[in-house]
Amino acid sequence: MKKPYEHEPFDALSAAYEKMHERVVEGLYKATEKSGAVLHKLIDRAKHQAVELEELTEEDSAKVAGWLKRDWDEASNYLAETGHEIREWLGFETTLVESALLDRLLQVADKTTLGLMQLKEQSQRPYVYKTGEITGPGSLVCDQCGEILHFHKTGRIPPCPKCHGVLYRRRGRKAGAS
After folding, report:
1. What does the domain layout of the chain look like in residue ranges?
2. Which of 30, 52, 71, 94 reaches 20 to 30 Å from 85, CA-CA?
3. Rounded to 5 degrees, what are φ and ψ at 5?
4. Integer CA distances (angstroms), 62 to 65, 68, 74, 169, in order
5. pTM assigned to the model
């Protein structure tokens, strides 16, 4: 396997998450149909491409694809349940974020809200986010104390800085609903 990322392992997974996300967003932008099934196929394609290009191992590629599906499912559930824009789901002011990845996400997500809403049928309950996993931009709430962590870019989920809890939900999603 090539060593495309000369950083810590989680930095490498964060970079791989962004690369796979970029491939998915590009595919969604070009797709004529914007459905949950198409989105998941694009994520699977990006997963296989990362392995074929020797960017990731099978195991790491599967992890990153799972995290991408989780984050996209959460975004689509939020959009379907609230009707609000993706900017509100992120939970912070997006003008402060300088990220081409976020810009592409916002372009595709806001234009394809109806397609993303179809993802809701695939996932009705909120996902649990765990310390050590990678997540994309947005806000997570500690299940234990309610502390809010803001991710302005892709990154590793740390233990809660307030109570050292290790389980989170997306902001606006209720704990115990899963």
Report:
1. 9-170
2. 30
3. -120, 115
4. 5, 10, 18, 21
5. 0.64
